[in-house]
Design a protein that fits this description.
Chain lengths: 186, 245
């Protein structure tokens, strides 16, 4: 099952709208993310885990904490409102250098968006320079926060080709992918 | 991910609500169960204050452009759990606070709020959410200079609401909690729970009380009386010297 930030029907729209109106503030952003993640936990993830599914989240609490704490939200407050359980069995942090991220972002969507380049933070200059600075700040913030999430956090170098990064991800997850038990009694 | 409880209990920051406001403006909130008459009283108060020359801004629960539509859709689809119900209402307040309320408080205006964080404390606790978690969630919201609770019996509130329309709304009646298949019975049970949490806040000195059964004019006079001290220190619009452009 695929989940991740901004994927609940409940909060997907207001989260998108927030990007067009960042003056609404970081508390609103964080609370919308919290509603988004709690909704996915309560409506989908818990049941899927109970049924034995592997749940793959395309960004989770760590990303929200990095984005919102950079915008001034108190990390303790963020921990209070975000769903810290169920705790991921493994968090894989794909760490690409800012310049590689920039090249990929431009190839995919053209000029990085206002929020993606951190221009709401007023960290300077043109969109591309702002993007590089913002992504560097996010990266440092994310790694610091990751350390507080315990030993199930793993950083993976992501500057390589997609195939090579995929090989590394599969190796990193191998210990979790145990073959299901076969019923031989009947 | 590992399975396990995901309830918000167990968060560990110390409660930060209420905290003082350090702005020249003043924030006044009214509270009460649905049908308690608080909105009528707040509108009358706003008219009176404006007539006296005060700059007044009215703000209502669940009214921000960013969140209101999402909440309306989710309520229609009955897609809210107590936790997401609470978080979206908190997001609504956060948007209004940032965009509408704080700028006006900084400018020295009077902001009149039809419901504030105590509404969430009462309603969401009635939905069995953890009191400490709720206080933490609303830690971003400043404490009003005055918060007034309009006390009415639940029977009176129901009769006032049903005199204006035929049906109670699903979440308003607390039907999401499956308290009773009859919405009116469910409303009674739910609002009584809400009332208990309001009364606890009254006991703790967080809310001033007005008798919601008193005649409208008497309630209004009492409400104005509660504002006396605040208004003595509050400049009127004509007193404010604007900077030259």
């Amino acid at each position: 099952m695929h989940v991740g930030i901004g994927r609940s029907k409940l909060a997907e729209r207001p989260l998108r709208d927030w990007q067009a109106a960042p003056e609404s503030g970081v508390h609103a952003l964080a609370l919308l993310y919290a509603a988004d993640l709690h909704d996915q936990v309560e409506q989908r993830i818990t049941a899927a885990l109970d049924a034995g599914f592997a749940v793959v989240a395309d960004r989770w609490v760590g990303t929200v904490m990095a984005r919102c704490s950079l915008r001034g939200a108190n990390p303790d407050w963020l921990r209070a409102i975000l769903p810290l359980t169920p705790e991921p069995d493994c968090t894989l942090y794909l760490q690409a250098s800012p310049r590689v991220r920039l090249a990929r972002a431009i190839a995919k969507r053209g000029l990085p968006s206002f929020i993606e380049s951190g221009r709401d933070l007023g960290i300077g200059g043109d969109p591309l320079r702002s993007f590089l600075r913002y992504q560097d700040m996010l990266d440092r913030n994310q790694r610091q926060l990751g350390a507080t999430f315990g030993g199930r956090w793993q950083s993976v170098t992501a500057d390589d080709t997609a195939d090579n990064v995929q090989d590394v991800l599969r190796q990193a997850l191998a210990h979790l992918l145990v073959a299901p038990a076969v019923d031989t009694d009947g | 991910m590992s399975g396990g409880a995901h309830a918000p209990q167990g968060a560990t920051v110390s409660p930060a609500y209420p905290r003082p406001i350090r702005y020249p403006g003043r924030l006044i909130a009214v509270e009460g169960i649905d049908g308690s008459g608080k909105s009528t009283q707040l509108r009358l108060l706003a008219q009176w204050l404006e007539a006296r020359g005060h700059a007044v801004h009215l703000t209502a629960w669940n009214s921000s452009g960013l969140v209101h539509t999402a909440l309306k859709r989710a309520k229609r689809n009955r897609a809210l759990t107590p936790t997401t119900f609470s978080l979206l209402h908190a997001a609504d307040l956060a948007v209004r606070l940032e965009c509408d309320i704080l700028p006006r408080l900084r400018a020295g205006q009077l902001v009149l709020a039809d419901r504030w964080a105590p509404t969430a404390f009462a309603r969401d606790q009635a939905r069995a959410l953890d009191a400490r978690w709720l206080r933490q969630t609303y830690a971003f919201a400043p404490r009003p200079h005055l918060a007034v609770y309009f006390r009415v019996p639940v029977d009176e509130a129901v009769s006032r609401i049903l005199s204006g329309r035929h049906q109670l709304k699903y979440y308003e009646a607390g039907s999401d909690l499956q308290l009773d298949p009859d919405p009116q019975v469910s409303f009674h049970v739910f609002q009584r729970r809400v009332q208990l949490h309001y009364e606890a806040m009254v006991q703790a000195g967080e809310l001033a009380v007005l008798d919601g059964l008193a005649p409208v004019a008497v309630q209004q006079a009492d409400l104005r009386g509660l504002l006396t001290e605040i208004l003595e220190r509050q400049p009127r619009t004509s007193d404010v010297v604007l900077p030259r452009p």
